[in-house]
């Protein structure tokens, strides 16, 4: 996407209650975040497929925003978000207790937080999120399908918890691997995919309104019949991106 188009996308997305630094340019902030020299080569090598500048713009991230990221993993987006929101913004990297309690599991994300002063790592129960303040944006990428997996999975509780954590008018941004039409949630633990329509149904039930959806990561060559780690599609799966808004 060219800079002009990206500017139009960013300027059209206002996160309710976000404190924007005077004179801050969201387009420049996002471009600088993606170009950040601290990003490892293993991350930048994935940029062509993941289109981070366009995705962050679509989500509505702006300088000064308060973002809560669910399951930050290796920090691919944590680094970009930290730079994009800038020193007047914050990123809460939310890690579930089951992961945090594993020996050494927190080393990487804690090291990342040491590099980016506006990143705070917090251990939470996703079904009962407790943060120091309401947030403008809750972010999750390639993880939502996993919220359906496990013997105690409760997606309705998770979505309700996210709803409560957001400011009025706030956004829940979801990007994930697309399952075939009609698959619903039946392949979340096998193919690690979810049907976009199923996500919309679950979000609507939680009180969110679908604000926008993007085809940025659409890939018609993906048959959606293989797991996301299958060599035939790994790194090239079709993904969907959606913004869900909490009513103001």
Automatic annotation (TrEMBL):
It comes from the Bacteria. Residues 1-21 form the signal peptide. Keywords: Methyltransferase, Signal, Transferase. It comes from Croceibacterium selenioxidans. GO terms for molecular function: methyltransferase activity. Residues 219-248 are annotated as: Disordered. This is Methyltransferase. GO terms for biological process: methylation. InterPro entries: S-AdoMet-dep_MeTrfase_Alr7345 (IPR016980), SAM-dependent_MTases_sf (IPR029063).
């Amino acid at each position: 996407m060219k800079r002009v188009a990206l500017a139009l996308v960013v300027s059209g997305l206002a996160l309710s209650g976000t404190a924007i630094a005077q004179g801050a340019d969201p387009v420049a902030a996002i471009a600088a975040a993606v170009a950040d020299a601290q990003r490892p080569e293993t991350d930048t090598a994935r940029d062509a497929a993941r289109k981070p500048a366009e995705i962050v713009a679509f989500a509505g991230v702006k300088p000064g925003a308060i973002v809560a990221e669910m399951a930050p993993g290796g920090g691919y987006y944590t680094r970009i978000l930290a730079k994009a929101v800038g020193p007047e913004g914050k990123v809460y990297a939310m890690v579930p207790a089951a992961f945090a309690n594993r020996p050494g599991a927190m080393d990487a994300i804690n090291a990342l937080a040491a590099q980016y002063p506006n990143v705070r790592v917090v251990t939470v129960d996703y079904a009962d999120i407790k943060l120091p303040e309401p947030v403008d944006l809750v972010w999750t990428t390639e993880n939502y399908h996993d919220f359906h997996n496990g013997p105690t999975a409760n997606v309705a509780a998770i979505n309700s918890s996210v709803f409560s954590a957001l400011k009025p008018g706030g956004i829940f941004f979801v990007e994930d691997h697309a399952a075939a039409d009609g698959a619903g949630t039946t392949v979340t633990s096998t193919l690690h995919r979810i049907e976009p329509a199923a996500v919309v149904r679950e979000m609507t039930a939680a009180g969110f309104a679908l604000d926008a959806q993007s085809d940025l990561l659409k890939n018609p060559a993906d048959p959606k019949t293989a797991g996301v780690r299958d060599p035939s599609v790994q790194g090239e799966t079709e993904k969907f991106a959606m913004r869900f808004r909490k009513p103001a």
